[in-house]
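User: quick one, fold this
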Amino acid sequence: MPGASPLYRKVAADLRTAIAAGEYGSGERLPAEDELARRYGVSRGTVRQALAALRTDGLVTSRRGTRRVVLGGGTRLQSFAELRSFTRWARSLGEEPGGRVVALDPGDATDEEASQLQLDEGARVFRVRRVRTLSGTPVMVERTTYPEHIGELVAGMPLDTVSYSEQLELHGVLFTDAHHTIDLAVADADDAELLGCRAGEALLRERRRSTDPAGTPVEWSQDRYLPGTVAFTVHNSTATSALGRRLSER
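Assistant:
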């Protein structure tokens, strides 16, 4: 049925709620896959998908051949969707995400864009430049390049669309993996005008390449944040590693 949530998401949501409520404490094992399958009336394959979603959220271990163990820790690890999507991250914090499109243009891929998106040299791409806001305050300039077939979908969306990711998913474009590189960049004249900072000021830069289930790149993005607005944290353990993003403490 159109709009229906896949069964594994419902199972994952129920388990996530149970973990948050303390029904399964830190270090405690979840029920076996066959027991969960009987409880929810689904296949073991569906249960495995649900557990994979919890693993992506940093809630359970991912070791094969053993019952999943609930992970402890103080800082809430963000889901893949929240970390990859500015809109979902903002909403998870209770902030109101917004954005203003500055430019949306087709063009020939640069060498870097062709390399990151695995395209032929000079292939047609779409570039989007937006100012992103948290509760009305500008915090980031987003520069994203899409392959032509995805860029055409974005170009057909209303200019006030808050989340391209959510709309692209409705068109069957899935984001399942992302590679993040975080460093500093110097604000150029464009950044200064859009963010109200000084040209030459240091900005926090996140470069991100997202791929679909087949490993095909679907976006290449370079986001520049005002200093003091966000911070990224890394949680490491022998069981899992996860990256998190949070509002910066001024």
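User: anything notable?
Assistant: The first strand starts at residue 97 and ends at 108.
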